[in-house]
Structure formats: C-alpha cells, structure tokens
Design a protein that fits this description.
Blueprint (H helix, E strand, L loop, with lengths): L28 E9 L2 E10 L2 E10 L6 E7 L14 H10 L2 E5 L13 H5 L5 H20 L4 E11 L1 H12 L5 E5 L5 H5 L8 H8 L4 H6 L5 E7 L7 H10 L4 E6 L8 H15 L2
C-alpha cells in the first residue's frame, strides 16, 4: 500500500502581512488607450507599484453602473497568445455585460511585461524569485486599488480570478488582503519552488527551497477570511497532481467548491468558463 501524501504548512510559517505592505502614495494610473464597442468600454492602463510600471486592461460597461461588482483577473504562464491579460477577456466581457468592472492584470510573467521575452527561462533567476514573488503580491494589491478606484465599484462585491501562477499568488493574496470576498483559483499547486525548479537550478537546492517555503500558498489560504472559494482543476494536468490539487483545495476555509474537468493544464474548455461565470454571478449579484 502506498502511504498517502501529507502536506504541512511551511515550518517557518507564512510571512506576516506586513511583508507585503506598500507605501500609501497616491495611486498613479494612466489611461494609454480607450475604446467603446458593444456597450463596453475597454481601456489599456498603466500604474505605478513601487519602482515598477504595471500594465492592465479594464473592461467595464460604457456607462458607469452604481454599486457594481469588481473582478481582478490574473493570467497563467502558458502559450504566448494568452500569457497576458487576454486569457480572461471572454470572462471579463461576459461579466461586464452584466454590469461588472474588470481589471485584467499583466503579471511579471506576461509577454506584455517582458516585451515578448521568455520570462521563465530568460528573465527570472533563482536569485530573484523570492523578492520578485513578494513584489508580485504587492502588484496584486495595487491592482485592487486600481479596481476599487473605478466609478461605481462596490468594495463589498470584489472577486479575484486567476490561473496557474496567478492562482498561487492569489492564494497568498487571500491571506494578506481582505478586500476580495470571493476567489476562483485555477490549476494552482502547493509549492512555488516545485514549479520554479522545473527551470534553472540554484547551487544550493535546500537553501532555495527554505527561502521560498514561507511563500507557499497553503498557509495563506488557511488564514484567509474570504467568503467563498471555487477551485478548478484538470484531470489530465501535467503540472498539478491529484494529490497536490486536493491539498491546495483543502487548505482553503469553507465554503469552498472543487470542479474537475476532462482537460489539460490550460483548462481550455467551454464548461470551465461557464462554471466560473455561473459561480461568480451567484455571489456577486445577490
């Protein structure tokens, strides 16, 4: 008999929320381009987070809606075509037609952020993974600032939706920022080091794992006070085993729900999209 895998929280515990604090400087967001079509306004924006310039797209009703839900989307690291905010444009357009305002972030691994370079192999290094991970969570918090600054967004009806690395950093966000009330986390796993070590290897593997362990998602999920979690996983995922999926799901507080699809890691199936929309609509429009 094979002994079951047991996942425990990092020995050093999660970082205090203060590790992800940022200066309360005025939010500086610039609209680079904006267009209106089909009753929706789509805007390309940039904003400052620390010393970084972050890019995003905002999809919202052309006419501001009073007390509207707000949703922050964060994409996966996958194909060049969708390793950017475009992955969630179908979700955002569908929700914006209902009245939601959506911010679609270009994360540090986005082809927009890297200007087309291969982030995993050519940009990041094992020496910068830890500091950049903290900075990425800060960027998510600043993106929430941008979302909540949009006209009519109701701070009590905010959701976070993300895939792959976006889901993992979102899990950390869930433990340090109370503003998102609902989370949809797609194809995340339990350890940043496990995925980062699929690429470059540091000289000291044990030291690297020890450095990254306090950022692992399970402990942050466990201390979240969000009001609901939806997890989406693929039955044929080459990067997330069934055991890791179960641990990722099980770390979150109740109420939570798991959806499993006959799909691969990209979760590119119409059913997954429809389930996300149904789940969000049942919670954001109540």
């Amino acid at each position: 008999m094979i002994a079951p895998l047991i996942f425990t929280l990092a020995a050093s515990g999660p970082l205090d929320a203060g590790a992800f604090a940022y200066a309360s400087a005025p939010l500086r967001a610039s609209v680079e381009k904006s267009s209106v079509a089909g009753g929706l306004r789509t805007s390309e924006v940039s904003f400052v987070s620390g010393s970084r310039t972050v890019w995003a797209e905002i999809v919202a009703p052309a006419r501001a809606v009073h007390s509207a839900p707000g949703v922050l989307f964060v994409h996966w690291l996958g194909s060049n075509a969708t390793t950017n905010h475009r992955e969630f444009e179908p979700d955002a357009r569908a929700l914006a037609k209902r009245g939601a305002t959506c911010v679609l972030l270009d994360a540090m691994w986005s082809t927009v952020t890297t200007q087309g370079r291969d982030w995993f192999d050519d940009v990041r290094t094992t020496q910068t993974d830890y500091a950049n991970s903290i900075a990425q969570v800060v960027d998510l918090r600043r993106a929430l600032d941008v979302l909540l600054a949009q006209p009519g967004v109701d701070p009590k009806r905010v959701a976070y939706v993300a895939h792959d690395f976006g889901a993992m950093y979102g899990a950390v966000l869930a433990g340090v920022d109370p503003r998102p009330r609902f989370y949809v986390l797609m194809a995340g796993t339990t350890s940043f080091a496990d995925w980062y070590l699929l690429g470059k290897k540091p000289v000291d593997l044990d030291a690297y794992r020890a450095q990254m362990a306090p950022l692992d998602p399970l402990a942050y999920l466990a201390r979240s006070r969000a009001r609901g979690f939806m997890f989406q996983f693929a039955a044929h995922d080459e990067f997330v085993s069934a055991e890791h999926a179960a641990a990722f799901f099980g770390a979150a507080p109740l109420p939570r729900a798991m959806y499993l699809y006959d799909a691969h890691h990209d979760l590119k199936t119409p059913l997954a999209l429809q389930d996300r929309l149904n789940w969000l609509e049942a919670r954001l429009w109540v």
